[in-house]
Structure formats: structure tokens, C-alpha cells
Specification:
With 397 residues, this protein is α+β, with helices and mostly antiparallel strands. 34% of the residues lie in helices and 15% in strands.
Length: 397
Amino acid sequence: MNCLNAFKAPARALAALALLTGSANASAGTYEDRFAAFLRDPAHFAYAPMEPVAGAARYRPLPAATRPSLRREALDQAEAYAAASRSSALLIWQGGKLQTARYFGGTSAATPLVSKSLAKPLTAIVIGRAIALGRIKGLDQPIGEIITELNGQPKGAILVRHLLDMRSGLLDQGFSPDPDHPWNRAYLDPDHGNYIVRSYPLIDPPGSRYAYANAPSELIALLIERATGRRYAEFVGSEVLKPIGAAGGAVWINRPGGLAHSGCCMTLPAESWLRLGILLLNDGKAGSRRLLPRGYVRQMRTGTAQNPSYGLGLWLGQPYRQRRGFGAPDAPGPKVLHSAPYLDPDLFLFDGNSNQTVHISPRHQLIVLRMGETPPKEPEWDNAYLPNLLIGAMGKR
């Protein structure tokens, strides 16, 4: 039985019931409970409720290499590095085959893993698919044409691309213990999409400044649902995961029948994230089928004047920065170590909180995925170590 179809009927019933019997007090109680749980342990906040995201009906694992194309010593070093870094999964794919697939602790190939901000490049892929289907005009369409209550409002001038390249003009991401702060409301409110539309601060003219935040990515789910008339989870499953042969999972929704959190909070097995990297490595094609418009992946891999290191949901290997933050270049805040320039200057990556990474090297047809807990402070996580180790080992036996 299709788990998505099984979910739809009760979800609609629950949504109708909420409209009939819900109250402001109930919503406030839900928010207060979520906020208290988030403050207690933000790193292990439990997402609920979740909506199923369907994957391929006849799932088949990626083919594994019978004889690795990479030097065994380098693969062993990569596995040791991942183990010491509190990883849950390490997948190394090169030349069309898995060179190694290591899972740690209680994780297995079937375990849905929390994506954190790996969900952000997924939003760019989803937008590209909607453009290919003709449901969104293009990256330069103002969002007020789709989220019509914003038409004529300052936020309505935000372009679709601005939600993806973090130049929306919306308030930068941060942390606050104040329950009424916009950062908390945009993340935890049982109606977070409408909160972002109505109340999340626009502090700069759209397109004028890079400002990394969850709020712009969270608007992608609303944009997709308005543009396509389909649930975000259903669209991701049917239009992205199924065509690339990926296993499904689930996504956090703000309330039963409510809006998905597209900026984070998607759970999928590790190999599904790897397959998304393969899709981009293949210029948006799954086999002979084109899912993304021609030239779209190139746009995803192109930085902006405001931040040359960030494209559409993707981080770029060049220009080299030994320490690169998630905020604007040279802005204060935590920085991720890159001990050396990437050996493939065209490398790009998914990069999420707790060093969830999917490094993609076009030159070497290499993808390196690491997911797991936040690595120990000592030795410090090095974003360049794994891809450079493996690229350096190519052709060496």
C-alpha cells in the first residue's frame, strides 16, 4: 500500500477537525511546549508531526564496486576519520559505483537520517523541477505572483532565486531565548509559513545583501504548494525521489495537515542524499530523463557578488577560504575549517549543521557523503580532508 495515499485521508480529516475545533489557546500551548523542548536540547529536538515522503516503489541500492577504484589505504583512512568524527554514515561514490558504504552505531542503510540544512539544496532542486514542469516561470519570478497576499508588498518583490541564494532581505539567522523572537516563531509556530509571510522582518532590499537564514528556505514549501497545488511532501517524492530511484522518508510539518518545513527537518536514508548529488553531477538528468532545466545546475553552482562562496543552496569550493562561515563573508560567527584548497577547484557541496556534508567533484566523478552527530572539538573537523584525501588517492594502487 502506498504510504502517501494512506496518509492523505487522515491528514485531511485532521486538518478539517483542527479548523473546526482548534483554538488560539491550543496553538499557544503547542508552541510553548515546542519552545521549551527546543531550549532544553536544540541539537536533538524531536520533530512532530511528520508527513511521509514517498520514494521509489521498487527501490534498488546503488551498485557497489567489486574492486575499488580508490586506494584501499585511503578508503581505510576515510573510514577512520568518519568514525572518529561521530559519524552515522560515510558513503564514497566514484565512477558510477559505491566504493564504500560504512554505517556506525545503530545506523543502517535503511535508517532515515535527519538532514538539517542538507534540505536547503533540496529546495533548489525542487524549484528547478517546478520550473521544468512550467509551474514556476523561472528564478526571476517575484514570489508575490505566487504567494498572492504578498503582491504589492515589499516581500512580494523577493525573487524566487533570492530564497535560494540567501539574498531575500529577510532577517539573518541567529539564536534567542525569547519565545516571541522571530527566529523562534518562524521555526516552531504551528502556522510558521503564515508567520514568515506576515511578520518575519524584511531588513534589506531583496537582492542587495547575503544573509543566511532558515526563513527563506521555509517559504519554498509554501511556494511549491501554491504554484503546483500539491503537498510539498508529495511533490518531493513524486517529482524528485522516485525518478532518481531514491528511498523515501518523512518531513516535519507544523501541524496535522499543515505546511512542511522545507528549510530543514527532512529525514531520508543516506543513499537518498547521495543520489541527489548524483543528479547534480549528471546535470539534472536521471538516466535519459531530464528533471531540471538545461543550465539550471550551472546556476546552482554560481555564486553571487554578495557571497561568491554560495550559489542556489550549494556551497562552492572556490574562492578558497581557510575558514568559511555560514553568514556573509568576513561576518563574525563560527567558521568551518578548510585546511587546504580543494584539489578539484570546481567542487561544490551540500553543507548542513553538525557537518552534514555531500562533497561533489565533477572533475573526478566523486561524491563523498558524511552524516552524523556534531564532531568532537578536538581534533577539529576539516571540510577539505575527506575529498582531498580521496582525490589524491585516485590512480594509486
